[in-house]
Amino acid sequence: MVDALPSVAFLGAGSMGGAILRGLVASAIPVDGGITATNRTSARASELEGLPGVRSIALEQQPDGNDVAAGARIVVVGVKPAMVPDLLDEIAPHLREDAIVVSIAAGVTLATFAAHLPAGTSVLRSMPNTPATVGRAVTGLAAAADVTDEERALVRRLFETVGSVIEVAEEQIDPLSTISGSGPAYVFLLIEEFTKAAIGKGFAEPEARLMAEQTFIGATALLEASGEDPAELRRRVTSPKGTTERAIAVLQDADLDGLFSRATDAALARARELAAGA
């Protein structure tokens, strides 16, 4: 386990970058050299002011802020994907020789980073999901071939401040995004439909939402606390010849497993289209 991190810069500390930054601050892990964050507007930069150990820069007030921040050891690139090449060209002359550049920009490949950065720059590509905002993310992490174990460990520790980390080959980043990246939306959709089913059975909307939301929250808390396989927990709830068994049979007859397979396949196809510029 890494006990401390070197200086970290977040270039584009919006929703996701800001969540990771806050997770790092909340973790109380020492950051030698501190944390720098850049955002385009003063309004967004002001949201990070006052966080301990953080220097927040508004680019509209300090146009060279990205260049200054690029002097950090770990540089997290969190701008919109279309803005990444220009940002890399901007910061390339200002990077340290031992810089580790980490992307949280969806769909931007390691090859794109390599094409715009000095030869030999260590680059990793990440795919965190939105529960990072509450410290419960799943982050996929793919490293370029020349990234060292020490560099990989530093970046892994950074993302562990907001949840769990899975290290994968780059070709698995897009498939991972269809599960953990898009996954929160699938869960929210299921809760929506569960709520509608409760309303259809005569419950008022507040009670329906409470039942649906807390059932999902409670079930996942039980899953985490028990350490059991979800199939085993399902079997324990499903009494033979009982009501739950009848409901599960309806879901299985509807080809639920095939439905999730087709949905994630569709998401993967779109991810590949976006990567190709379609």
Walk me through this protein's architecture.
By secondary structure, the chain is of the alpha/beta class. The chain is 50% helix and 17% strand. The chain has twelve helices and eight strands. It has helices spanning 15-27, 42-46, 65-69, 84-91, 110-116, 149-160, 173-181, 183-200, 205-226, 230-237, 243-253, 256-275; strands spanning 5-11, 31-39, 54-58, 74-77, 100-103, 122-127, 137-143, 163-167. The protein has an eight-stranded mixed β-sheet, sandwiched between helices. α7 crosses α12 (256-275) and α8 (183-200) packs across α9 (205-226). The radius of gyration is 22 Å and the shape is elongated. The chain starts with a strand and ends with a helix. The mean pLDDT is 94.
Can you lay out the helices and strands and say which pair or pack?
Blueprint: E1 5-11, H1 15-27, E2 31-39, H2 42-46, E3 54-58, H3 65-69, E4 74-77, H4 84-91, E5 100-103, H5 110-116, E6 122-127, E7 137-143, H6 149-160, E8 163-167, H7 173-181, H8 183-200, H9 205-226, H10 230-237, H11 243-253, H12 256-275
Parallel strand pairs: 1-2, 1-4, 2-3, 4-5, 5-6, 7-8
Antiparallel strand pairs: 6-7
Helix pairs in contact: 7-12, 8-9
